[in-house]
Structures are given as structure tokens and as C-alpha cells.
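Fold it.
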Amino acid sequence: LAQDTAKAIRILFNDGIVPESSGYFKPRYELYPSAKNVIDELMSVRGKHLFLDIETDSEFGLKCIGYNLGSDTISVVPIIDYNYKWAYAELLHIIRAFSVAAQHNTLVSHNGSGFDWIVLPWRYKMMLGNSFYDTMLAMHRCYPDVEKSLGHGTSLWTNEPFHKDEGSMSYGSFADMRQLMQYCGKDVYTMMLIKRAIDAHAKTIPGLQDSIAQVMAAIPAYLKMTLLGIHYKQEILDATMAENDQLMMQYNRIINFLIGEKAIKELNRTSKKSVAGSPQKCVNYFHGMLGYPVVAKSPKTGNPSLAKKAIYKLKIALGKHELENPVLDFCISYREVAKESGSLKFVHWKA
């Protein structure tokens, strides 16, 4: 709200005209560039920032790649045309050139660690390097509580108009193909402006540059783990699950003892689940029987809720009134252990 208000004031003091974003250049978009120019640029540039954005279909079929390597031009390279055929005879050489550029430059994408940098090596066997910059992660270090999509980032950091509704979902004509490439190019440009703004902002906050650098340094390890899995010992996994089962049984026994037999019978009229494992029973007990203040409501029903984070809000609310209830503490402990057990039920990859 503060940023949007400041932007509105700047526009008002500029006679209602939206000022141009302070950025690298007025973008020139080159759609469907020649294969030779793409390969030559990608193979020759070293030590720069490779700003990259990809567009795919619902099956992760790569439609186009937009990129910039520090020139005054944003290039958008189609991978398949609207007939789902190779867009270039030299396509394999182009993919190889992108891989070489990614290994010799700092790869910059928005949510790259959650999509682009997973899809490219997973589906297209593209080797990446060890130097990454994810503008979404950097934005999170600046403002942890705000929305971080590229559209939100463009609104927050730049004066560029909203363009996230311009991407064509259809891909059955040359017009569709061109529209998608234009959209991809705008993604690259706004991402460049966002990084420039974040870099300037980080210099004004003590420790923020180091914080951003720390999260970027962690990206390679997480990418490798996501793509290759992790080693684990089955006996330790089994022992942890067994211990968690015993803990949850004990937490339930303690909760039932503290609540009392009469109250438990009343709560069991609605469900046979344990109190800790049933958000509705928690509501009935803490709000209905004990009269604790309601801290959250269901967005669907409008009724009191103690699901997910709401139970922590109740703990904080009681603490402000210097109230303690061990039942609440054991319910939280139960949920934490249950969450851990749920996370350990992952798909086992076989060599």
C-alpha cells in the first residue's frame, strides 16, 4: 500500500503521466532471431548476467526462451512453432549454446529455482552452472510478507504497465506464437528492472545484501537435490516414523487426561478423531467450552477455525493475557510431529 500510494503521488505530480521506469534501456525486442546470431552471442559472452525466461505448455513442452546478456536487445527464441515442429534446423545447437551460456554467466530468472531451472535440466538435459540469481527469492528477503509473482514484482518495483494478461494460452497460429514471444520478452525486461531496483534497495538496508547473497548461494544444492533426490537410510526413516507414532499416542493420552473424561465424551459426539487431530474439536473445546477469543475464521463458512496457523495465533493471543493451557501446547506438539511424519512419506526413487 505504501509503495502504490507513493507511485500514485509520483504520477499526480507528473501531470497524470506515468514516468518511465528507471532501467537499463528502452527495450528493443527481437522475435525469432537468426540461429547464427543466437548461437554466436550465447557461446561468446562470459561473466555477465543471463536474464532468462521460458514459456511452456501444460506438459512442460518448451515453446520459447527469452533472454538478455547485457546488450540493448531482448531476444526471444522459439523452440517449437505453432505446428509443434522445430522452429530451427539448428535447434540442438541452440539448446547447447544456452547450456554453455548458463554455465559461464550468472543465470537470472523469476522463480527460476521453482520452475525454469527445474524444467530445463529435467526435460531437456540442459546443464546449468553454479551461479544463480532468483528475483523472487531476492524479493522475499526484501519483503517476506508481500506477494512475489512477477506481476506483483513489476507493480512493486517498476512503473511498467501490467502485462501478465497478454500471454496467449492457445498456440494454433503464427499470431498466437508471436503474441507469446512478445509476452515472454516483456517478462525478461520487467525482471531486469526488478533486479536493478532490488540491488539499489538492498544497499540501503544493513545486512540485506548479505542475506540475498546467502539465499542465492544455497540454490545449486537445492536444485541438485530436487533433480537427483537425496540419500537416506531406511532404518532411520522407519525408526523416526515409529517414534513419532508413539509420541502422538502419548500426546493424545495426556490431552484426554487434562481435558477430563466428561468433556471428552461431549467432544466425541461430533467426531471420533483425537482432539489434536481435529481442528473442529479444537474449536469446540477452546472456543466453545473454554470461551477463548476467536483468532481466525474459515474463509468458506465464516465459522471459527483452528486449522494450520490459527492454533499458533491462539497461543500468541493467550500469551498476551498471560494465560497458559498445556492442552494447547500438546495439540501444537502433536501437529508438528504429525506434519513431520507426513513429510517423510515421500516417493522412494529406485536406482
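The chain is about 50% helix and 10% strand.
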